[in-house]
Design goal:
The complex is a heterodimer of chains A (about 675) and B (about 325). Chain A has about 675 residues and is mainly alpha-helical. Chain A is built from 26 helices and 8 strands. Chain B is about 70% helix and about 0% strand. Classes of the chains: A mainly alpha (about 675), B mainly alpha (about 325).
Chain lengths: ~675, ~325
């Protein structure tokens, strides 16, 4: 099996080289061929690992200049490798269609296979240096990809800068945490670290965990380290946004779980309370922003923040339950978290790719300019609609099942641990529910305003289906959402194996009971397939009842009621901005929007208005109150530093002379 | 417990639930209207008026706004279908429901959400300002009602470690002490507010209004006519009835049958009808006394409901 791992890595390298050397029209195809090759290799290994339950191990001391390479793929890693592979396959297929209209540059064609393979490698590496190498490779290659359209506008460059800074700060924290672990345990192999970590002092363990949490949370996009995410996801080409949102942010969760559970072997309750609070804040904050955004890709990006928050709530609850001595319920919460992670990757990949189709066809991602796309591009719109149903956790698609499981985890968390959780768990459920409601509002807005109703611009008016391969790519992920939603029971075995590795001990309490989920000792039985069937039957009954009972079944097209006016233009309809207005008012304190109202009166009287321009700008709360002060502080320091560095050669010579003297005196 | 427990009696029980809800719901809404009218000193339409309206509407032709799509035409069907699914799943007259795999409180919440979302999308699909307005307001209210609803559910579910409706109802039947505990009262308060918000009753929305700018639910269905409107009216009244039945069985489970024997089923049907009618009359009487809240005061009401439900959970864990 190790040969497939090597082939996976090789595919990436060869693919990058070939794609960079290829002529314009062949690049995307070559990228697709090699990325699919690498993903298939990854899929083969991960399926084998999950099926057999044995990890694949490969160690050599020769390849890289840092004390050997070690790869070991266990079921946890296999879950992430398999998921990344599925997403990557869909994305590169989509990208072939996308490149018809937007030629891939040599640089991004080179970076894309490297990005995919680095994400496939991260869950399979098993020592510190290899991990950090792959982590950096992923950061750099994704940064290059975010910058693909750097000529388009300054906002792309600014987004890339934000991303670069936050991801590097995160990487520094992770490096520090891992190096401390490696030094303290005397070996850099994960197995050795896991063996020594329990005997480390609590202070060291906590420092390592907090540093790693900060680093990985910045990659996952948890509040307050999420600031790069809406910017980079919105400005990157859609294929890259999909890869980042559906695959890369997952690795942040992977890192938290790997360090917290495998390397450190669990920790005190307060670690996990921090994780839960982080998750709940991210969930609420992300969903408020996604409910009020009018930029389609920004909306999706903030919804990634919110879903990562939900996953963190589940992971944190698992840790808390284990720390308070309930391993069985901990396994349940972790099961739910991993399930939601997989679902999120699938539906967010679908949504980002369909948003990419919209952008490709209309050239805009502003919901206020869209509308009426469903009639003009029915296939792409249906795919988006499927993603919408999945993400709003409606039965019978995939999001429903995982949110149910998270709620079960919290329900059992509440009654089985101490005082803190008595307050924390209801608030987490509240956060989860608020998130659910706001997500529904956000996606009714995204789909209803963007795809239904009337076209609000000529670009939306002249929209048509995107190239077929784009629909194939996004449709592939949508199909997964449907299958997992209708028959989630087939995933139980997979997740139980994964959870067993992270929570060694009792068997998982999520069981397969016929076609339903059964949770042991909890009288909870749940059958998503049954709900799907009943729903379909009910739909059939209601549909035929309408048909049979009505006397005239034919439909007459009629003009709409426009308050007594005889005509109605697209400008009179609700836009995304107006749709979000009630929620914007409710969450005024969080959003702190600034309004620009520009009224230009016509000559004679100020009561005759020529034109009115209204705009809202909402900067991110954390960006304004957390990051801006840091920036101004740095700027002040930098200004002070300018006094030292004024460009005069004489002064520099004096500095070197003084420095030399100091060195001589000190080293004497 | 099996996923599906099929026997003649259980099928009959489910059919009884469906028939009761489908035929009783418009009567219940009519009854509430009559009660309100009488209390206000008016005669009002007869109780069966809603049924007469539905029958008349079914005979008319369907119309569809010029630029709308399948989302507009299918929403009434989806609304009715999700409500039917809920009726099939929840224990109304017997706790031995036929599909225990779906009898889950959290699942019910998401089914309700599915129905509301289909209406909200249909309203946007019409491409009118009224539709957009109703849709936007509905989604804002739902987003804020959701936390209160789920946490109130948690308050009743947590002491029993289960979100299965049958388990909760049986549990509260056996421990009748719980019926008047603080946590249940607090949760009941939250639940009532949420039910009123979800079904567009006063003080959140006025079902009797026809002024476009103040309405939520009426704005959503403004473009519907004929059989589609009949389905929307029927669906909304069914939803309201289901929510009341759920409320009464969660908090006042008296009379519900725990077996599938015919006599107890008959008693359960009578008890259910009595409880739901009483609740409806109480709500209608209350509606006379309150005015509709300003739209931007509704979040405060819902936040209040959320606080009530959090208190309910906390006290349920502290007390028990």
């Amino acid at each position: 099996m190790t040969v497939w791992l090597v082939a996976m890595a090789a595919c990436g390298g060869v693919g990058a080289a070939c794609a960079a050397a290829a002529p314009n029209n062949a690049r995307a195809v070559l990228v697709a061929v090699f990325a699919i090759g690498a993903s298939l290799c990854g899929l083969i290994v991960s399926v084998w690992v999950v099926q057999s339950g044995h990890p694949v191990h490969l160690a050599t001391s020769q390849i890289l200049p840092f004390n050997g390479v070690e790869l070991r793929l266990d079921p946890v890693g296999a879950l992430f490798v398999g998921l990344t592979a599925v997403v990557a396959i869909a994305v590169v297929i989509f990208n072939v269609g996308y490149s018809r209209g937007h030629t891939m540059s040599r640089t991004s064609a080179c970076a894309l296979p490297i990005f995919v393979v680095s994400m496939l490698l991260i869950p399979s590496v098993w020592n510190v240096t290899t991990f950090l190498f792959c982590w950096e490779l992923m950061a750099v290659s994704s940064l290059v990809l975010v910058l693909s359209d750097y000529q388009r506008s300054a906002s792309v460059r600014s987004a890339a800068l934000w991303y670069a800074v936050l991801t590097q700060i995160g990487a520094a924290a992770i490096t520090f945490a891992m190096v401390v672990l490696a030094v303290k345990s005397g070996s850099q192999s994960f197995s050795a670290i896991a063996l020594h970590a329990p005997s480390l002092s609590p202070a060291v363990r906590s420092t390592v965990f907090l540093l790693a949490l900060a680093g990985f949370a910045s990659k996952a996009g948890a509040v307050p380290l999420h600031v790069w995410l809406p910017k980079a996801h919105a400005e990157a080409p859609s294929a890259v946004s999909a890869l980042m949102s559906a695959a890369m942010v997952n690795l942040g969760i992977y890192g938290i779980v790997r360090v917290g559970n495998t390397l450190l072997g669990g920790g005190p309750a307060w670690w996990w309370i921090i994780v839960i609070v982080l998750g709940a804040t991210s969930a609420v904050f992300g969903s408020i922003h996604s409910a009020t955004s009018t930029d389609l890709k920004r909306l999706l990006a903030y919804s990634t923040v919110d879903n990562i928050g939900l996953i963190l709530i589940a992971v944190g609850t698992a840790g808390l339950l284990r720390a308070t001595g309930h391993p069985a319920f901990a396994a349940l919460a972790l099961f739910a978290g991993m399930f939601h992670l997989v679902n999120h990757a699938l539906f967010k990949g679908t949504l980002f790719l369909s948003a990419g189709s919209v952008l490709y066809v209309t050239g805009t991602r502003d919901l206020d300019q869209l509308g009426g796309l469903f009639k003009r591009m029915p296939i792409a719109s249906t795919i988006f609609a499927l993603g919408t149903v999945a993400i709003t956790a409606l039965p019978p698609l995939s999001g429903f099942v995982s949110e149910w499981l998270i709620l079960q985890g919290l329900l059992h968390g509440i009654s089985s641990s101490g005082t803190v959780s008595v307050v924390l768990m209801p608030l987490s459920v509240g956060a989860l529910a608020l998130t659910g409601g706001l997500t529904a509002a956000a996606f009714v807005k995204a789909f209803g305003v963007g795809f239904l109703g009337v076209a609000r611009s000529s670009a939306a008016e002249s929209a048509q289906e995107p190239p077929r391969l784009m629909n194939v790519g996004s449709g592939l992920l949508a199909a997964f959402c449907v299958v997992i939603g209708v028959a989630p029971i087939m995933m139980v075995g997979l997740f139980n194996r994964v959870v067993l590795v992270l929570e060694p001990g009792p068997n998982s309490i999520v069981r397969r009971h016929g076609e339903s989920f059964a949770i042991q000792n909890a009288h909870a039985m749940f059958d998503p397939s049954l709900i799907a069937i009943v729903l379909v039957v009910a739909l059939g009954v209601a549909f035929s009842a309408r048909r049979i009972l009505s006397r005239h079944y034919s439909v007459r097209q009629a003009p709409v009621w426009a308050g007594g006016r005889s005509f109605q233009t697209a400008r009179m309809t609700y836009t995304a901005t107006s749709f979000a207005e009630p929620l914007q008012r409710v969450f005024d304190d969080v959003l702190q929007p600034s309004h620009d109202l520009d009224v230009s009166p016509s000559g004679e009287s100020r009561y005759y208005v020529e034109s009115v321009q209204f705009g809202t700008r909402g900067a991110d709360l954390f960006e304004r109150h957390l990051y801006q002060p840091v920036f101004s502080f740095v700027r002040v320091i930098a200004n002070k530093a300018r006094l030292l560095q004024n460009g005069s050669v004489h002064r520099y010579l004096a500095y070197s002379f003084a420095a030399l003297l100091v060195v001589l005196v000190v080293a004497r | 417990m099996n996923g599906a427990e099929v026997s003649l009696a259980s099928v009959a029980a489910v059919m009884a639930q469906v028939v009761l809800c489908v035929f009783g719901a418009p009567l219940l809404v009519g009854l509430m209207r009559t009660v309100r009218c009488r209390l206000e000193g008016r005669v009002g339409p007869p109780v069966v008026q809603t049924w007469r309206d539905v029958r008349k509407l079914l005979q008319k032709q369907r119309t569809q706004p010029e630029r709308s799509s399948i989302f507009f035409t299918s929403a009434p069907v989806v609304l009715v279908a999700t409500t039917l699914a809920i009726i099939v799943f929840i224990p109304m007259i017997t706790t031995r429901t036929i599909f225990s795999g779906g009898s889950d409180l959290f699942a019910i919440v998401f089914l309700l959400l599915a129905g509301s979302m289909s209406l909200a999308l249909a309203a946007l699909d019409t491409g009118t300002a009224f539709g957009g307005m109703g849709s936007s307001r509905l989604m804002a209210i739902i987003a804020l009602a959701e936390p209160a609803l789920l946490v109130a559910i948690l308050a009743v579910a947590a002491p029993l470690h289960s979100s299965s409706l049958s388990v909760i109802v049986v549990g509260s039947l056996h421990h009748s002490v719980w019926i008047a505990t603080p946590q249940r009262l607090l949760a009941l308060g939250a639940f009532v507010i949420v039910v009123l918000a979800e079904s567009g009753r006063l003080p959140v929305d006025n079902p009797a209004t026809h002024l476009e700018l103040t309405m939520i639910h009426e704005a959503l269905m403004l473009e519907y006519s004929g059989p589609d409107l009949a389905f929307v009216v029927l669906g909304e009244s069914m939803r309201f009835t289901v929510l009341l039945a759920l409320l009464s069985n969660l908090f006042f489970p008296w009379g519900i049958s725990t077996s599938l024997r015919a006599p107890s089923l008959v008693v359960a049907v009578i008890a259910l009808v009595a409880k739901v009618t009483l609740l409806a009359v109480a709500i209608a009487a209350g509606e006379v006394a309150v005015a509709k809240l300003r739209l931007f005061r509704v979040p405060e009401l819902l936040a209040g409901a959320f606080v009530l439900s959090v208190l309910a959970v906390v006290s349920s864990l502290v007390i028990s």
